[in-house]
Amino acid sequence: MKIGIIGASGKLGRLVLDHLMNLAAAEDIIAITRTPETLAAHAERGVDVRHGDYEDEESLIAAFQGVERLLLVPSKAVPAERREQQDNAVRAARHAGVKHLLTFTVSGTSPGNPFAINPALVYAEMSLFQSGIAWTIMRNGPYADEVVDWLPSIIELGTVPYPTGNGKAGYVSRDDIARTAATILVGENHTGKIYDLVGPELLSTEDLCKTVAEVTGEAVVYVPAEAGDYVEICLEEGVSEELATILATMYISIAEKRMEVRLGAIERITGTPPRSMRELMTERVAAK
Ligand SMILES: NC(=O)c1ccc[n+]([C@@H]2O[C@H](COP(=O)([O-])OP(=O)(O)OC[C@H]3O[C@@H](n4cnc5c(N)ncnc54)[C@H](OP(=O)(O)O)[C@@H]3O)[C@@H](O)[C@H]2O)c1
After folding, report:
1. Which fold has domain 3-140+173-198+261-271?
2. Which of 123, 135, 225, 237 could cross-link to 128 by cystine, CB 3.0-4.6 Å?
3. Where are the alpha helices (DSSP H) in 134-240?
4. Nearest Cα to 108, choosing from 179, 167, 192?
5. Ligand 1 pocket test: which of 5, 6, 12 has the largest number of ligand atoms within 8 Å of its C-beta?
6. Side-chain half-sphere of 61: how many Cα atoms within 13 Å?
7. Residues in Cβ contact with 7 at an 8 Å cutoff, skipping those fewer than 6 apart
């Protein structure tokens, strides 16, 4: 069975690709990207690396030839562009005869969620439901990696200024998402399922601050920021206004408790629980 991944060169896609190479023959894996040169090492190991661009339906039809199961890792385009990219991918998948489509959205995807990307995510899920092709949706929790990457700033600020109030979310590492997606891609009985791929526990921002303080020994306490102030802090950190707004609205979605989803899917699917925020932070601190 040939398994395709588009978005295979990105941070998440590359991890899925690497886990998949432990579960399937390289010759059965088709990695699709606009930049095939970035996956030259995978091509050398036998992966069929193809060019494909979400903006170019013809390129997708060519890239999807012979693919039975196809994982669409969404690009980070703005929502309006994402809808067009999704339409191109689903039409091309139908044209190429793909049998099963899988994609990632985000915890709490549903109409009315204030997260700025949510309309595109709802659209992506709907487009799979209506595709006429078997589908599986994986709704990812917020990436724990991004909190861990931000540790030096958290320590400097003495707080995690997310405007989440006492809402909680299932922060999860990209690696745990990727190994679960790879398991699903080679497995059976995942058709028509929506999985919440989240960490082992739901954490409030106060919990995050306590974990940082315990792991690093630094004084870090939660002082809730207003959404507007959080955007200002991001801008001072060099984050673009667009990304700052996306992040702020994601935290408002957490504040509205839209990310307090059911735990346990990663362990049920793979047999191994996802790593906790404490483990991920401890690893990072130890690596320094
Ligand atoms: N849950 C969360 O907290 C969270 C946080 C961050 C991101 N995300 C989502 O996770 C997904 C992947 O994120 P990431 O961190 O892995 O991003 P990334 O490293 O920037 O990867 C994005 C991938 O999209 C591909 N891509 C971009 N435009 C494309 C196009 N027109 N056609 C085909 N491929 C295209 C890129 O490949 P080439 O350039 O090689 O074509 C790249 O492989 C995104 O949907 C993002 O919104 C979620």
Report:
1. Rossmann fold (3.40.50)
2. 135
3. 144-149, 151-157, 174-186, 205-216, 227-236
4. 167
5. 12
6. 8
7. 13, 32, 33, 71, 72, 73, 74, 75
pLDDT at residue 220 is higher than 90: yes
CA angle 177, 147, 236 (to 5 degrees): 135
Give 194's contacts (C-beta < 8 A, 6+ positions apart).
Answer: 125, 136, 137, 139
Query: Is the model's pLDDT at 216 over the cut of 90?
Result: yes
For residue 11 and ligand 1, the question of a CB distance below 6 A is answered with yes
pLDDT digit string, tens, across residues 3-25 = 999 999 999 999 999 999 999 99
For residues 242 and 78, what is the distance between their CA atoms, to the nearest angstrom? 9
H/E element, 193: strand 193-197
Say whether pLDDT at 78 is over 90: no
Query: CA distances (Å), 156 to each of 148, 151, 191, 237, in order?
Result: 14, 9, 46, 12
Distance between CA 96 and CA 65 in Å, rounded?
Answer: 5
Residue nearest atom 18 in ligand 1 by C-alpha distance: 10
Q: In this structure, is the dihedral angle defined by the CA atoms of residues 117, 123, 126 and 132, taken in order, positive or negative?
A: negative
Confidence at 251, pLDDT banded by 50, 70, 90: very high
In eight-state DSSP terms, residue 27 is G
Its pTM stands at 0.96
- Give tens-digit pLDDT for 46-68: 999 999 999 999 999 999 999 99
Print burial letters for 82-105: b (CB count within 10 Å at least 16), e (below 16): bbebbebbbebbeebebebbbbbb
The CA 218 to ligand 1 mean position distance, Å, reads 33
